[in-house]
Sequence to fold (254 residues):
Amino acid sequence: MEGEVVKKLAPKLGISVPNAIKKALELMRMCDARCTNLSSLGVQGSCKAVLCLELAASCQDQPVNKDIAVRLSGVSKKVYSNALQTLGRLLDVQPKASVKDLCVQFGCVGAADLAKDILHRYQDELQTKVSDADISQPMFPAAAVYASAKQLKIKVDKTKLTSIAATKKTVFDKLCVEMTKHGEKIAEATKTPGSKSKRTKTFIEELEESFDNDKDGSSTKVARLCDSDDEEEDYEEWKRRILENAAIALGEKD
Fold:
């Protein structure tokens, strides 16, 4: 009976790989043997099948739409996320999440390279404190992607990333802060020595600068403009009139 439920729900979750469905059925049997008190987690009805399908799809590196999974499970998003994390631990299966996949999923492919650098830097620092540091848990790449997107000013849904991280919000927030610091250090290290951010020039300032730069070679241009207007103006008067008109157009004149 449960096997039929799994096969029925699989296509709705976008799972078509036979090995993923086979793995889900295996996890269902393991769940029945090891997890006798799932009701305490709020798991009921088709929820167990959906959870096993997502865990199985993760093992096959096949993405699952989290919103659809929650809807099919019949429980709240919070209950589903907590149950997925707990069941994964009980069955020795943790959802995989790579930097590349997360960047594709959240539409921030441009943040992938920096996110990988941040993750590697974090891992190097962690290994100086813990020799057998393991960053395979999804919260690490999820935090790296968030930090990278923040550094590059790319908007991502942190709430969904927190869900994928499969950890408490407070833990994920602290991890994001640490990853963000690494992102800032990387950005600082890649800056050109001696480079400073410059204030953006206004249109009027750029126009004045262009006059100054081209002053020596502008006599011919001014002459042509004067001829077209049938009036003679010296260069300074012509320049003053152009700047004045530009200021009026931009609303800068008092």
In short: Residues 228-232 have pLDDT under 50 and may be disordered.
